[in-house]
Specification:
Length: 245
């Protein structure tokens, strides 16, 4: 088992495009062993080829975070290939209810959103915890959102106060709570659990209206993923600044 902080085994979920891809690219450029995952095998392999054309290496393992069979298979392959995991970046997520209000939210939309953003993220995390335990300094990075902050949602002066997206906001608020609970359980261990907001970024999800590039968002994720201390354990951060839950 390597203690080398410069060559960490890092899994990025939903890394075929958007913030996940940019995050994988940055980490590969720094020489880490990146495991790029995607639910669509062709898209995942194409993303690896794109990195390879830029002189960067990443391994690929298929992973659909809303499918238990896929999670089990992924974990088995990961264990066989690497025997441990240093960093899990739970990036995969969905947001399809931008306009839904609390009064008219469709429960099917809530269910579908939670299935990926909350249940899927939890199931992947639980599945790889034994591999993270084999790392000298394991880390779980949960990619959340400013939209998951209850403090921001209730603050009339906050820029996201008027944003609907009720299912998405609930899913990220719940992910924040799960992360807090997990962080407390691992307080006396080598495992660091942090929650990151990438800010509002230009991706398929964030749209071209977003003020930040995907590269900027990925930088926020990478900063937390590679932070050598435990200062972000149980914290919610954006660009290394603490956010209110
Ligand atoms: N962009 C923003 O402004 C913003 C702001 C705050 C937080 N975030 C968060 O950042 C993360 C990445 O978002 P993004 O902007 O990069 O969005 P994106 O471009 O839409 O990418 C989302 C990624 O998640 C994958 N995914 C969705 N469901 C999945 C599943 N069941 N299993 C595996 N992969 C799945 C997608 O795969 P497919 O290509 O197969 O659909 C895609 O690779 C999300 O958690 C999002 O909530 C984004």
């Amino acid at each position: 088992m390597s203690n080398n902080q410069d060559n960490r085994v890092i899994v990025v979920t939903g890394a075929n495009k958007g913030l996940g891809f940019e995050t994988a690219k940055k980490l590969a450029a720094l020489g880490h062993q990146v495991v790029l995952t995607a639910r669509n095998e062709q898209a995942g392999k194409a993303a690896c080829r794109l990195l390879s054309e830029q002189g960067l290496e990443a391994d690929f393992i298929p992973l659909d975070i809303s499918n238990s069979t896929s999670i089990k298979l992924f974990t088995q392959i990961l264990a066989d290939r690497y025997q441990r995991l240093d960093v899990l970046i739970n990036n995969a997520g969905v947001f399809f209810d931008w306009e839904s209000s609390a009064a008219t939210l469709k429960l099917d939309d809530l269910n579908d959103t939670l299935k990926t953003n909350l249940f899927g993220t939890i199931e992947v995390t639980q599945s790889v915890l034994p591999l993270l335990a084999r790392s000298p300094s394991g880390k779980v990075i949960n990619v959340s959102s400013d939209l998951g902050s209850v403090s921001f949602a209730a603050d009339t002066n906050n820029e996201y106060y008027g944003v609907n997206g009720t299912a998405y906001r609930i899913s990220k608020a719940a992910l924040n709570m799960y992360s807090t609970q997990l962080a407390k359980e691992y307080a006396q261990s080598n495992l660091v659990v942090s929650v990151v907001s990438p800010g509002w970024c230009q991706t398929d999800m964030g749209t071209d209206a977003a003020p930040r590039s995907a590269e900027q968002g990925a930088r926020s994720i990478v900063n937390a993923a590679l932070e050598p201390s435990d200062k972000y354990h149980g914290k919610f951060v954006l660009d290394s600044q603490l956010l209110a839950w």
